Amino acid sequence: MKDPAQAEGEEETLDPRDWDRVRELGHRMLDDMVEYLRTVRDRPVWKPIPEEIASSFHEELPRGATDLGDVYRDFSRRILPYPTGNIHPRFWGWVMGNGTVTGMFAEMLAAGMNLNQGGGAQSGGLVEAQVIDWCKAMVAFPSGGSGILVSGGSMANLVGLTVARNAHAGFDVRAEGVAASPAPLRVYASAEVHSSVQKAVELLGLGKNALRLIPVSAGFTIDLEALRRTIREDRLKGCRPLCVVGCAGTVNTGACDPLDELADLCKAEGIWFHVDGAFGALAALAPGLRGLVKGMERADSLAFDLHKWMYLPYEVGCTLVRDPAAHRGAFALTPDYLEHTTRGIGGSDLWFSDYGIQLSRGFRALKVWMSIKEQGIDKFARMIRQNAGQAKYLEQLVRARPELELLAPVPLNIVCFRYRGGVLGKKPLDELNKELLLRLHESGVAAPSYTLIADSYALRVCITNHRTRREDLELFVAEVIRLGARLEKETARAGAAAAAGGRA
Amino acid sequence: MKDPAQAEGEEETLDPRDWDRVRELGHRMLDDMVEYLRTVRDRPVWKPIPEEIASSFHEELPRGATDLGDVYRDFSRRILPYPTGNIHPRFWGWVMGNGTVTGMFAEMLAAGMNLNQGGGAQSGGLVEAQVIDWCKAMVAFPSGGSGILVSGGSMANLVGLTVARNAHAGFDVRAEGVAASPAPLRVYASAEVHSSVQKAVELLGLGKNALRLIPVSAGFTIDLEALRRTIREDRLKGCRPLCVVGCAGTVNTGACDPLDELADLCKAEGIWFHVDGAFGALAALAPGLRGLVKGMERADSLAFDLHKWMYLPYEVGCTLVRDPAAHRGAFALTPDYLEHTTRGIGGSDLWFSDYGIQLSRGFRALKVWMSIKEQGIDKFARMIRQNAGQAKYLEQLVRARPELELLAPVPLNIVCFRYRGGVLGKKPLDELNKELLLRLHESGVAAPSYTLIADSYALRVCITNHRTRREDLELFVAEVIRLGARLEKETARAGAAAAAGGRA
């Protein structure tokens, strides 16, 4: 049905009929969002979504129009109040950044320009190339390397491992596929490696059995001797060691593998050296932390995120590759309709689609460019140092309290610990800490996440948060102790009641 | 070095020191961008980047801070004036959408909330689930299917083909890898299939030799008899036909394969049926076009974009999968640190990271939700019908002018033609049209792209543009004829000069 307001034969558009009104609405949205960020500290970290809201997202596909003001009101009522929580000063769950006001503005500008970063002669390509040069400088990667911005760490690892497979398997994998390999291909990483590496190995058709998980030593870093032994055994079995993945900051504890030694080993063995530096790579910015990731710059491919420890809004990660020809050779594919020209819109040497999986690509480079320009990289270095210092501070707070138990070393920005109080036994301790975590989330006071450390349930605090202050950590520790003590009492009462019931 | 304005011991943040000033700057950006979009018709479609601008993007990594106002001025001078051009009413190159004002606002809101759509108990998951339900309704896909929003068509095809491989290869590909296949796996698609399908087949380790490109019939749709024969031959050779990829709108001409017949064939043969409907899938919205993609709803997996023919800003595409268990089974992977809980932030059934490659994911669902709400799907249906009608109109304009030659049928929204004037011979015609395209771009009047049709260089007009009017196409045709005639004269003069030179 034709829009009744439309004159016969007149063509329609999705542009506003009343630009001024829509502009005013936009200003209201911007005001609201800036205020939302300015006041984030005053709200709970997170709150559960009420059932009537959760169940309301089952609407029929809307056929007719709704006034944008009403759509925005709906957003403000049903969506805005229930975020993940990672914008909050006391969110330390998983590995998430906060985003920034400038990042938010940049996303608006990028969406307005809506240019296609697949390639071509447009300014976005220049911005992305500039940002990649900066990324190389940030992590001390060779300036002759190539790179691409991707959606995040999972994709960054996939891109790096694709280059490893296609450039280093010793035959034409792109044409013949993995099955043509004269020897089974093997990838090596510590048992603490991120799950996205397994996902990538599976996607690439190598199969997760090809991923050899090497035990870790006390500091949760890869056991080099075990790695050497496994490689030796695999060679004897007729396998071809393709790639070693080093961790610059594991997700569980922030451990950094001995990257220099891994680089030496890979060089000696002729193995591709990939580093997953999702957040840890950026430790290279801070002089005091740089030593932890030394050797990372020797990687053949390096994956890291900018929406984690660079605090930018989702999505943006980066893959750097030492050998640009290997990088391009792993992906480039130019059909007739994409033939690159020397002039006009297709007239550019910058075709990012030749260096990754996406053809059409958004302008995620803009928020990186604007943020680095505005803050300067020294500021980011200070923020990263500040977060690492806060983790050390939390470590001290935990060590100082007998009710708490540190479960892993704190090399970087992650603290794993638990409430132990007077509770004895693994299972009750695990149960108590599990419940403690959920009550922390539900209280809205703080949001750590969880993991298993040597099979013990751990509260896990990962500080990639530019809003966190030391006082937030003090408040958090006090709350953990308060909740822990209460849970201990509840457990004791329940135990007594059960015992009494048993006697009855 | 510590920020000098920072008191000793005080902690820093990336939040603004002066919120009011930054808010004012944001309002200025928003005003400028809305004005930029309102006046887009008054500017050239595209213009080349001046050398002094292009060469300026080689700055050292900035160490110190720059006032955000200055950064924005720099953006306005060096970046904003040089977009790809696809926001313009007369941009018809490749397959690109325009973006919308609402899409731009939504991206700002999404970046402000900065939630992580990997999963968990937050409103974004509900929004994405709602949007996927709407996507299923839009393309008449079974409501029991699963889906995920991805960065675009390349990723959407990769996700669909990953499910095909992992669910349908007949062995545990995730564990054992492609090399464990008892029989070589084969994927089938027409020779007109998009390059992203080859990219996906390569990424998945099948090798491009596993992709059997089937010849097309006169309308550039897959030759069903040739497909049947190839499958038969492959089976005789001991190969396992894994997947047929049907095209709902080829990139060259907009041709739609006979999807119902392909569905029948796949059912009979026990082959996975994937449909690449990057833009064409949305033809299902318009009653008059729906017949072209009939059978698409029978696909096992379906890939399409929302940043093309839904006109939304980059990036957003979608994969739908008929069997949710197969979909989840192809990707799900839950390490300790991602253990899903029943309460707290991890307490949700909606873990999109189990249905795709990304773990951390941005809130691209919001722009889809807001846009469908605001415009209503009937409006999108009318816009798509309008674009298809405009393509038919251009076809008529081309057919009416003896200087122009239509090179392919116009089933949907793509018109391939060339200027022929009085020029004779393949090579001169190709050269003339190549130059004509570049001059069109350089003039800023209109931006078609190019392809080869039966080995002839074609100007290719793909209308996925909500700002295009018929008058734009009239202007374009007039300009093609004017430029073509001029080039013909130049060619003749150059030929005469060369001949004279030859005689001298």
Task: Kindly describe this structure.
The structure is a homodimer. With about 500 residues, chain A is an alpha/beta fold. Chain A folds into three domains: about 20-55 and about 65-85; about 115-375, Aspartate Aminotransferase, domain 2 (3-Layer(aba) Sandwich); about 380-504, Aspartate Aminotransferase, domain 1, CATH 3.90.1150.170. Chain A contains 16 helices and twelve strands. The first copy, chain A, has helices at about 20-40, 50-55, 70-80, 100-115, 125-140, 155-170, 175, 195-205, 225-235, 260-270, 285-290, 325-330, 365-375, 375-400, 425-445, 470-504, and strands at about 90, 145-150, 185-190, 210-215, 240-245, 270-275, 300-305, 315-320, 405, 415-420, 445-455, 455-460. A seven-stranded mixed beta sheet of chain A has the order 2-8-7-6-5-3-4, with helices on both faces. In chain A, α6 (about 155-170) packs across α8. The longest helix of chain A is centred in the last third of the chain and has 34 residues, at about 470-504. The radius of gyration of chain A is 26 Å and the shape is globular. The model of chain A is unreliable at about 1-5 (pLDDT under 50). Chains A and B meet through α1, α3, α4, α5 and α6 of A and α1, α3, α4, α5 and α6 of B.
